[in-house]
Amino acid sequence: MLEGSTFSEIHETLLRHAVNSKELWHRYVRSKPAVVGLFLLVGFVFVAIFAGSISGFDPLRTGVGPILQPPGRDYWFGTDDSGRDVFSGVMYGTRVAFLVGLAAVLGSTIIGVIIGSIAGFAGGRVDDLLMRFTETVMIIPTFVLALLLVAIFGSSIWNIVVVITVLSWSWAARLVRAEFLTLKGREYVEASKAVGSSNWFIIFREILPNAMTSVIVNASLQIANAVLIEAGLSFLGLGDANVVSWGKMMYDAREVIRFAPWTSLIPGAAIFIMVLSFNLVGDGLNDALNPRLKETRAK
Fold this sequence. Notes:
Elements: H1 4-29, H2 32-49, H3 51-54, H4 86-122, H5 124-139, H6 142-153, H7 157-183, H8 187-194, H9 199-235, H10 246-252, H11 262-289, H12 291-298
């Protein structure tokens, strides 16, 4: 049975986290662009979850309406040159954008955190070796290499996710390594070493939680980058033919753009708005999590 002091400590910890979360939220909502970005992002999440209920047609089904029907009451975003409903395609394309963005950034962040943590904590030759490798990955033109790899290994949606993951971890690694170099000399880290804590415990329990601010902000921005890469690959004809993505919709509409601009402008606008929303949220998180940095920039 837990003692009263233990219950008190748990209560104080929960209360402290609640206060910190409230303060973070207040700092975040002070930025109107960040609130707009969050509102847009919540809207995209809602669409991604309920795309099947919102859209009236199978986005891959041809002949659901007249060919190249302009936007109107029956087909809100019009139809394409195969009679597919553009509105349904945009709704289902939101799911693909989130799938690629979240899956790729989750994988790349995990890789980057592991490499950056080891490099920053170990220092010396280990740091030099890992950072030279990281810098090599960073200087490679990401989209060009993604184009090459997808062309070689295939254009399935999961191949695209893996390619983006492999090419996107370097930024997280650099950020985490910089945070570790700053934090590993702090008193609480030295105290943990003095009591005989293992290096893995110090890395993942003492330093890493305090380095996650930059990782979170970077992840929100990298999701937007992943969405753009997938859209670019699909627009060049290297998207997964079995799923509906905004880039693929633009690829399919390239021959009719002059006399049916809605077939490409609407999915293009969806890409723009989603990327913008993630960037606004990322900037808002950066200002909320690093208020001193915001004050310094203001001066």
